[in-house]
């Protein structure tokens, strides 16, 4: 088994030794230009990790290395192509061969952005109305991932039984193959469109790495996205396995300490800005100082699944104004519609990561929440409508307050808001165009923030639910006017209606009880552990 502890330990040891490698990258020299300092790198491992805070320049460094190797100009690179090179030692000949603009290009180089690539693939499928008929109905299902199923199950914390891939040519640009995944689990089969973004990203990454040519060089951007800490460690074990088996060199960017956990500190580099505000690379011999210098983000506890980009912006704005720690601890993944969110909720559960489905308020009353494998919650709202409708309606009712937030002609904004019809799908984009704004997001954020300000009690209750959803709480049951309820942190919750059928509530009146918050018929309720 490739994922046994002894085998995994060997894979990690071989990274440093590069045992059996025919080619060994020995040195990278990037001549700085503009905002990038000159970067000389002596490579001593098959895996080199480039770390740093968001915006530090990790992607710039990766793309510069890729550009030097391939001769292909990449966006956001700032290096002198004439004087930059990569030296690769040909072990059998015991000589260094140079690659770069003044030499030759290296053929087998792959740049992977798994999170972005997976989204592009899903969008391609969604926008092709005949995709299923053309490619899937009679497609050739390959079991190519079977050998690595043990790793995949650990990474995803999912008891998958089988995965097949249909490899489709001629759909993506640059002659890239589009992999369509089908997962088999407990008699259920679901494809790429029905799975969550995290699951799809991992399957795409695994497939990409096992199908790459031997002796290739890979640039890999932040593979930890959407993964909890333990899953990140399992992913790195898989990457170590593939590097060793296919004799790859991987240059990986990250801002997670879990990605670095098993790696030798000498093959880790920190991206930062020097005194001249230029991108440069440094290293630390002591790992504790090294991690402290990075200012790494806390480990992710889970992921919120939302329906679309606007819902994602709503939850980001709420948490940014009320509980920024949740914003740091949880990914927010938009799945393009409630049906995709519910597909995940029906057949996916993780023991490593807390997953919460955050549906729009217009779904309240339509679902039986306790029939899903993971918690169902709803975005806060005063009406049973989509968040865009809720917030547009609030803006129209509070035009003067909204106008005060915007740095533009007050009369002009007010006139356009009043005259604009409430087609919530394009409302902010249309308003932005009428006001000659270059970006509609500033309008959206200000509108959401205004709505938060005017609905603070509702927002505070929503955030309290997020903090405690399906977590054990001890509260006291209370009774008023023949109704039973609980109070947690000054916030009142009704009891789950099913409790009345199960227990004598009068017996528990005034007593401390353990239980948890959940949603029932669209409402936040408290359920006891009896």
Automatic annotation (TrEMBL):
The keyword Coiled coil applies. Residues 403-430 form a coiled coil. The keyword Coiled coil applies. Keywords: Coiled coil. GO terms for molecular function: ATP hydrolysis activity. Signal peptide: none annotated. One of its GO terms (biological process) is double-strand break repair. Residues 41-159 form the Rad50/SbcC-type AAA domain. PANTHER family: ATP/GTP PHOSPHATASE, ATP_GTP PHOSPHATASE. This is Rad50/SbcC-type AAA domain-containing protein. It comes from Shewanella violacea (strain JCM 10179 / CIP 106290 / LMG 19151 / DSS12). The lineage of its organism: Bacteria, Pseudomonadati, Pseudomonadota, Gammaproteobacteria, Alteromonadales.
